[in-house]
Amino acid sequence: MHPLDNVIWTSLTTTHAHFAEASGSARRFPEEISLLGAVREHTAEAYNVLAELTRARPVGLFLEDEHPPVGWRTVAVKPLLQMICENDSLLGPPPSDAPRLVELGAAESSRMMALAELTRPGPFGPRTHEFGRYIGIMEEENLVAMAGERLRLPGYTEVSAVCTHPSRTGRGYARLLMTDVMRRIFQRGEQPFLHVRNDNTHAIELYRRLGFRERLQRYYAVVQYGENEPTS
After folding, report:
1. pLDDT per position in the chain (232 positions), as tens?
2. What is the DSSP secondary-structure string of 111-175?
3. Is the terminal CB of the chain with fewer CB neighbours within 10 Å at N or C?
4. Is residue 70 a contact partner of residue 52, using CB atoms and an 8 Å limit?
5. CA distance 10 to 134
6. How far apart are CA 213 and CA 60, in angstroms?
């Protein structure tokens, strides 16, 4: 199995193992960092362990189809493409008039969460910035665009939280930020990958222009242990 096939599990058992809430064949991140969790193999026994670990709290899984595990109910689900970039040949230099990129961390957490809530690039919590390096573009005191690193495992780092304030789209901020994030990943001898909704054609075209190719199809499902409540 390729390490990106079960990427959340691989991250939680390697580079991000220090974050893991773990029990046997199940892992999850602390909720303040991410809803993401995983099992080593998609078996009933593993999902029973995950149920004990989550204690009926929601958890975000990458699944091969849109159906939740037996005994779990779906809170939300969306189809994803996993894309990977294997070389930096399409990464050009930043334009001479590019805005300054700033490093983002704990001090900017509330601004990062507000931008993520507005633009919905994916789940973002008060400690999501601890995953890795995040950068942004500030105008006065306002964060208007950001991108960063999420899942990490040996040889690979996920580009994530790519978003721009609706009033600042069309200025090339996403490409500028992604190029910087990707270049740092390649400098470490790793390959960048990402996940994107498969109906987000605008973003997919940008990612292709940066050298990404589609690798596989997955579903991002937020699930909770327990059957669906009966309807009246």
Report:
1. 899 999 999 999 999 999 999 999 999 999 999 999 999 999 999 999 999 999 989 999 999 999 999 999 999 999 999 999 999 999 999 999 999 999 999 999 999 999 999 999 988 999 999 999 999 999 999 999 999 999 999 999 999 999 999 999 999 999 999 999 999 999 999 999 999 999 999 999 999 999 999 999 999 999 999 865 543 3
2. HHHHHHHHH-SS---TTGGGGS-EEEEEETTEEEEEEEEEEEETTEEEEEEEEE-GGGTTSSHHH
3. C
4. no
5. 21
6. 24
Tokens of 221: 């499902």
Please report the domains of the chain, with CATH numbers, ordered by start residue: 7-81+219-225 (3.40.630.30), 83-213 (3.40.630.30)
Q: How far apart are CA 203 and CA 20, in angstroms?
A: 30
- Helix crossing, 201-209 with 173-187: angle to 10°? 50
